[in-house]
Amino acid sequence: MKVLVTGSNGMLGQDLCPVLEDEGYEVVETTRKSMDITDKDKVENIILAHNPELIIHTAAYTDVEKAEVEREEAHLVNVTGTRNIVQVCKKQNIPLVYISSDFVFDGEKDTPYKPEDRPHPVNYYGQTKLDGEESVKGLSKYYIIRTSWLYGHHGSNFVTKLLLKNPDEEIKIVDDQIGSPTWTVDLATGIVNIIGSEKYGIYHVCNSGAVSRFEFAEEIFAVFDIKANIVPCKTSDLQSNVKRPKYSVLDNHGRYRNWEIAFRDFATLADF
Ligand SMILES: NC(=O)c1ccc[n+]([C@@H]2O[C@H](COP(=O)([O-])OP(=O)(O)OC[C@H]3O[C@@H](n4cnc5c(N)ncnc54)[C@H](OP(=O)(O)O)[C@@H]3O)[C@@H](O)[C@H]2O)c1
Q: Which listed CATH number (3.30.2310.20, 3.40.50.300, 3.40.50.720, 3.90.650.10) goes with 2-156+180-208+250-257?
């Protein structure tokens, strides 16, 4: 089966494409350079030229802080860009996988969010991801796959950012944001299993278990055997214009392994 992937050089894209290839899929990788999703004509021409049987849309404007101020750009990529892809999928009857986020929820629950729970984003990034979901729902064949707190070997993320810090200096990490850290390789495997099932709908794919950002930081330094001076703080102590959900654990029906086990596997393969 031929699958076209958007954002193939992103953190998830770089882990997803090899996993798809290992499973026997023919993969068409597209990047901002080869297919800027905000360019409607280009999107149509490239998709028609390759004629894929499925599209996996991972490309996104992902900087949550900057999205608050660069609203036009975030909207252009996450909403208009997604609509451009949806329009071609509709015309050509191509099923679409849309990667979405735990940030579509407001974090006011204290039990894991189910796929059918009502989204209510508290920041602009979350709003654009939800608007993307809404346009994808206009298709008859779609998979919306929400995930959370991604880290991987390619690109910048919470783990790599922490490991780059000077461990002798005080590092403040919030202990009042709870979520499920998820390794991009486990998400990639989850995506492959879901598309193999051909059961369309909304899915939550994340590693199991819930942890605060502070507890995750403690685990990161412990696993990498670094003595770091990390200090817990509250979200309100940080100077940020962005509201974040305080609890964004997704209910994955226990289908994915525990985040600590996944993180140890990730660390074993890390070369930084
Ligand atoms: N990271 C997380 O914690 C997290 C959590 C939940 C959900 N997600 C979702 O998971 C997906 C993958 O995230 P990620 O962490 O892998 O993101 P990422 O590393 O930031 O990758 C995003 C990719 O999208 C590309 N892109 C941006 N604008 C584009 C455009 N106009 N046209 C084509 N490509 C464009 C980027 O290209 P450039 O490199 O050229 O900019 C990059 O390759 C996203 O949909 C994100 O919303 C992420």
A: 3.40.50.720
Alpha carbon distance 178, 212 (integer Å): 4
Q: Residues 111-145: pLDDT tens digits?
A: 999 999 999 999 999 999 999 999 999 999 999 99
* DSSP, res 97: E
Ligand 1 binding pocket mutation candidate from 5, 9, 28, 62 (most atoms within 8 A of CB):
62
Q: What is the pLDDT of residues 59-68, one digit of tens each?
A: 999 999 999 9
Euclidean distance between CA atoms 261 and 132, whole angstroms: 32
Token code pair at residue 239: 């100077």
Does ligand 1 lie within 6 Å of residue 8's CB atom?
no
Q: Which two tokens stand for residue 17?
A: 């494409």
Query: Which sign does the torsion angle of CA 16, 19, 25, 30 carry?
Result: positive
